[in-house]
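Milestone M4 deliverable, item 7.
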Amino acid sequence: MLTPDQLMRLSGLELQARAIVEGAMSGQHRSPARGVSVEFAEHRQYAAGDDLRHVDWKVFGRRDRFYVRQYEMESDLICHLLVDTTESMSYQSEKSSVTKLEYARWLAAATGFVITQQQDLISLSSIDQSLRMLVPPGGRMAHWHNVVPELEKLEALASQKGDQSETPFQTALEQFAEQSQRRAVVVVISDCLRPMEEIVSGMRALRSRKHDVLLLHLLDPAELEFPFEGPVLFQGLEALGEQLVETRSLQAAYQAEARIFCESLERECRDIHADYSRVLTTEPVDLALRSTLLERSRGG
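Output delivered:
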């Protein structure tokens, strides 16, 4: 297991991502992730030199002649990585050793590495006050090496913005859906700190384009547990200002609301046939990758 503390000791996002993938794949005889594949097209009569592995013996039994299966290569899969870089993603509680954005960078880099290794294509976009296409779709490891530096820059993006109170998350996803005509896998990494309907409407726009959508709901444990005692002055991210709160009387109600929100969001995603996975920033990153991506690909 690779904890965030252990990963922080490794130098550079590229090395960290490789370590995450290696940990996630340990014990696997082969990658369960689907890559470039072939699709049956038609039969044709056997000719000398044809590969005998492609002979259709069932057809031979019916027709008493040898026929071979012909295949067509399916188009390479495209995986679009969409990373939320709004200011709330810079949050880090005392329980966590990394911010949500740092953890998101790990997930995105490792996911991109897996996709590239299976000879498919990846792109990278960020969502803040607008949709930003940082790296267009491409394949091969050289392309992944272009994605990694852009991911490393994302941490700076979150701290350089001004008023974030009207971040058009829904609009950004709708805009992406309009721009991406070809069916693809879309991985959205976000803390989802915005109205439920805004999130679901954006996800619905992606699904309307027949995209295979996975929402990685990334949270700091404190955002679920509310582990504060006594009066606490909270500094709001994304232009919410400051507020003095007596935390003890609110803890139970907060925990209940957080649980209801997460359960409702998961249910809404399921209803539109989008996949949902909640990840905490204290979880071993290799296990998070395995449970959210590798196990998912095995079932699909």
